[in-house]
Write the structure tokens for this entry.
Amino acid sequence: MLRPRTVLALLLCSALAACDSVGGSPEPLPTVVLETGGSSPQLQGEVTASGVVVPAQEAQLAFALGGIVQAVHVIVGDQVVAGKALAELENAELLIEVGRTQRNLRELASPAAVSVAEQAVVAARQSVDDAQKKVNALAYPRASESLIDNIEGQIELAREELAEASEDFREVESKEHDDPERAAAVVAMTNAQMHLNQLIANVNWYKGKPSDLDEAIAHANLDSATSALQEAEWHLAALNGEPIPAEATGSGLAELAQAEDELAAARAALESTRLVSPIAGTVVAVEIEAGEYASPGDVLVVVNDLSRLLVETTDLSERDVPSVSIGQEAGIHIEALDQDVTGRVTAISQAAEILGGDVVYRTTIELESPPPGLRPGMSVEVQFGTRE
């Protein structure tokens, strides 16, 4: 592809030749030799486009929330690493909140809290053992045969005692109610009846089977104790930094998780007041000073990775883009340096852009040998094709 200044030179030569030949036979034009600023081989091809030099990575940084800038830590030209804080808003209250949530979490996970959680696990295990014993007892007789025989013998003796006490009461029944002898007989007979009733109730319970309600209560108590033990163990595991399943529950675990969430939220709020570079590179723009108000979304600091520069086309038309492919070689003329270099296509945008009413596609080219002095923003002309 001939650059515009070359075309102009050819036109001037043609005009001079025409003037010299007026009135005579035309003379052949001399051969024009084109010189370039570099030694890269020329490429053949009909697809051309304008472009610009761009950094391989660029970070345009803005605050998500507005506020007064407390400090700016960089100036244009500074080299920064990924994670470097570039500027920050006033954040004293957020620092206090982070400290508060950190202390709260430390208290919930302190050695004393771990000891309490260990005691809770021990108590929960004992409750499970007790509940399990009661469930196991449902499958066995409530008393041995010898115990039942013993109680039945006591019942017979109690019946005799009641009969004797009843006979003694009948002998004094006709006396006045406040008569001491009659009162003593009433007490003896009543005590004998109550003793007999208790023995009969005991032997009936020992001989009887547990009701459905008894079984339901025993199993419910065991389930409750088992769940409490599981939650106590989960809580203790979390305090010790051990993994727990996603479905883990419990009041202690919930309190711990809430404290962790509050700390994470406080830290996130604090981080939102800081501009941190996501890449390593050079600071190329700083648009804010300490004490100024930063509006949300305004780009305040720009960091470029100048260690690797690329070329992006700006006007590759929809008619020409089908002739361009990934890996295709391209010749690049850098106007500011008056140098020619070569490169290869590494990306072709899938989305179109509109430029002056024309549909264009942005294409990225990796330079094979970037020349000294190359800077982002320099204009280039690109010719896609193959080597001669």
Q: What stands out?
A: The CA atoms of residues 8 and 367 lie 29 Å apart. The radius of gyration is 48 Å. The first strand starts at residue 43 and ends at 55.
